[in-house]
Amino acid sequence: MDWTAIFLITCFLCRFIPPKHFHSASCLRSGRKTNDPPLLTGPSPTPKSWKPYILPGAILGGFSGLVLFLHYNDERRAIPKGQGEKFERSAIQGPIIGGPFSLFDTEGHFVTERNLLGNWVLLYFGYTSSPDVGPAEVQKMAKTMDILGSKQDHHKILPVFVTIDPQRDTPSQLRAYLKEFDPRIMGLSGPVAAVRQMTQEYRVYFKKIDEEGDDYLVESSHNMYLVNPKMQVVRCFGVEYSGEELADAIVKELKKAET
User: Fold this and answer.
1) What is the pLDDT of residues 97-107, one digit of tens each?
2) What is the rounded CA–CA span in Å between residue 161 and residue 183?
């Protein structure tokens, strides 16, 4: 809103707010010469008050102040040309998934995200005591590896299983569990704090339920992540994917990365 518009609005209000009129004794007398007694008698009137003018003036002043405030606020909120596009691009990127971690494999070797650089990684978070969904997901991971390995132009994918139950999943137990499905799957575990840090980096939900002493289940999100050689998550897959669908989706991402 420019200053010309403010001026026109102020003039418009001044025109349509009716002024308050006050009358003196002479104005109340008849305009003709008569013998009738004056309508008003008594001592001369006292000076008139300015109170009738206060309300219209306050309304006009308040409106003008509001107009000036809105004009000033619009100027402050205005985005200079060229800056709006940068904001829109950053707004659609979404949260960053993934980050540094420090764990151990089933042979006791120290493993961080740097050890996985240069590899395409299929990452899954589970636990060996899972009664149903966990084994099905590990089996799907093994089947996906077989499908990808059967393709002529396949790329090497490193399957990684990270336990979310490090209190019970010892290195030896984790190694024996994964060997039943596919010995190519790398198992990672570590201290509770280190495992929790990694799950937070990858936005993995998990929670102990149905606890009865040392016996309990772990509720989790059961997502698989496809991580590129720069250790950046490019896709997240839920339990609704079959082994064939997962393999096809991975091949599409690999081809997309080559173009």
Assistant:
1) 899 999 999 99
2) 11
